[in-house]
Amino acid sequence: MPYRAPLSDYAFLLDHILGYDRLTATPRFAEATRDTATAVLTEAARLAETTLAPLNRVGDKHPARLENGVVRTSPGFAEAYRALAHGGWVGMAARPENGGMGLPLTLATCVNEMMSAACLSLQINPLLTQGQIEALEHHASAALRTLYLPKLTSGEWSGTMNLTEPQAGSDVGALRTKADPNPDGTFAITGQKIYISWGDADFMPNICHLVLARLPDGAPGTSGISLFLVPKFLPDAQGNPGKRNRLSVVSLEHKLGLHGSPTCVMQYDGATGWLVGEPHKGMAAMFTMMNNARLGVAAQGIGIAEAAFQQALAYAQTRQQGRTPTGRAPIADHADVRRMLASMRAQLFSARAIALSCAHAIDMAAATAAPEWQARAALLTPIAKAYGTDTGNELAHLGIQIHGGMGFVEETGAAQFARDVRVTTIYEGTNGIQAMDLTARKMADGGTAAFALIDEVQSHAEAARTPHPDLATDLWQAAESLRETTEALLKQDLTDRFAGAVPYLRAFALILGADAHLRAAHADSTRAALARIAIKRLLPEQAGLLTQARLGAADLYALTPEDLAA
Ligand SMILES: Cc1cc2nc3c(=O)[nH]c(=O)nc-3n(C[C@H](O)[C@H](O)[C@H](O)COP(=O)(O)OP(=O)(O)OC[C@H]3O[C@@H](n4cnc5c(N)ncnc54)[C@H](O)[C@@H]3O)c2cc1C
């Protein structure tokens, strides 16, 4: 089943849920008119459907491999990457003064979703470069910006993100890579980084690594970490790739999925690096890249969810099994299969609405500098990441279920979706870490941003009461439970909060998804049937989740690992 980009869903969300015109009303995005948005999304859809999608199986069957220290990429990836870069897609949200298109992240998120649906292994590459561009725009010196940004923005060079070390995964502060000052103002970077996505490729004249390392006077933990730009080839006086830097790819990981994406163990042996931002403030600078990447990873999950849904729907309409009262039936006519398909479609719309609302809030914050938009963007980022990627995983598995045995064999591609998307709940901060971020840092304002969003959900429910009284009542009541649980969590210590963080985040997402569905039904009555699925079938899970969220940690710590083994 060939992938078809969900352009009508994007158009509906832009016009009826996000209020895209609020963006174009700002000077920053005045030129990204609604017509421009349509043209951009249509062109990206064409690239995803025709150039990237045919490579998805190829990358899975012919993984990237390491040959004499050079990564050889999957067949066709080089040509597809060039098409993507020539189209300007790497720098679509980057600043125009560096060669970017300056388009809103809202549109970039739709584009990232389409490209992920088509070929996730390849899409990670430009996604990481986009994050690096943003980090350099905000934190690098003018000299570094002038040298690197035009080449990264055009996609001529690519960017990676180097945080993880064997002993420093979620606990980034445990990293040991060191940065020693050189007499010329550069730094010698020494250490090993693991799991580095696209740490090398054979179709790029240079690769720029953003590396977290500790200066000699850096304090232990995250407060002593600095950020460095470490290119594979040191730029010469003209800015072209010159001398080889002292870094190498030691090995590639053999993974469950994402075979087309080389995941590298990187060794830095006194490699020359340039400081980005202030000494010891590397985490703040890297967070610019990580927040961008978190939303990008949400789009990855949603892209796979869409691809898995489309394939499952097509299969369910053709596979004949059993009978209904009217005769021999395609499996889509059985109630249980219909339940799975309808749930998939409803959850997909919810996750997409949340991710695009997050992107829109980031754009509004960038365009207006209003603290309310900044707080909204910060609050939505962990929800978008965790729910978008959970949705990718859940829908990929439902897709397999709908295929029956054919889902478990590789020919249909249903299994590849599940293998590829699995890592999205793990990288860019596991979904557990996202939930902890939501209940701690994102509530350090005493819950102001969360309560403002809950107020909005309830006002939408009030507005929809006349056409949809029962749906509006359910949503209003769920939002009230979320408010009460938020108040309860704010009174707990962090250990208790963290015990309930994952169910709390999911309940929040279900309520935001139901809100988007109700607003959709209010704007267009043909969407009411899907809204009913979201509110009557998916939303009720929030009650159990919020009960769990309030439980605290005592019952969990009452059971030791030894008890669990007994
Ligand atoms: C395919 C792939 C690509 C990757 N690409 C990159 C990349 O490009 N750059 C890069 O730097 N890294 C990359 N990573 C690394 C990735 O970001 C880490 O795997 C991730 O951050 C988790 O770290 P970890 O694997 O060490 O797991 P751990 O940190 O050991 O976590 C294991 C489990 O413990 C939980 N846990 C850990 N600490 C806590 C805590 N304090 N509280 C509660 N629970 C906790 C986690 O949620 C998880 O469930 C990649 C990984 C993979 C698999």
Bound molecules: flavin-adenine dinucleotide
DSSP helix count? 21
Give start-end ranges of low-pLDDT stretches. none
Q: Over the alpha carbons, how many angstroms does the gyration radius reach?
A: 24 Å
Described by the principal axes of the CA atoms, the overall outline is: globular
Q: What gap, in angstroms, lies between the N and C termini? A: 48 Å
The quaternary organization reads as single chain
Helix content, binned percent: 55-70%
> Total number of β-strand segments?
13
Strand content: 5-15%
Biggest sheet overview: 7 strands, mixed
Mean pLDDT: 97
- By secondary-structure content and strand pairing, the structural class works out as alpha+beta
Explain this structure.
Helix 1 (7-18) crosses helix 17, helix 6 (105-139) packs antiparallel against helix 7 (142-154) and helix 8 (282-318) packs parallel to helix 10 (371-403). This protein has 566 residues and is of the alpha+beta class. A hairpin with a 2-residue loop joins strand 12 (320-324) and strand 13 (327-330). The longest helix is centred in the middle third of the chain and has 37 residues, at 282-318. It has 21 helices and 13 strands. The chain is 57% helix and 14% strand. Strands 3, 4, 5, 6, 7, 10 and 11 form a seven-stranded mixed β-sheet that branches. A two-stranded antiparallel sheet has the order 1-2. It binds flavin-adenine dinucleotide. Flavin-adenine dinucleotide (FAD) binds next to strand 3, strand 5 and helix 13. Flavin-adenine dinucleotide binds at residues 160-164, 169-170, 195-197, 255, 258, 263, 423, 426-427, 430, 432-433.
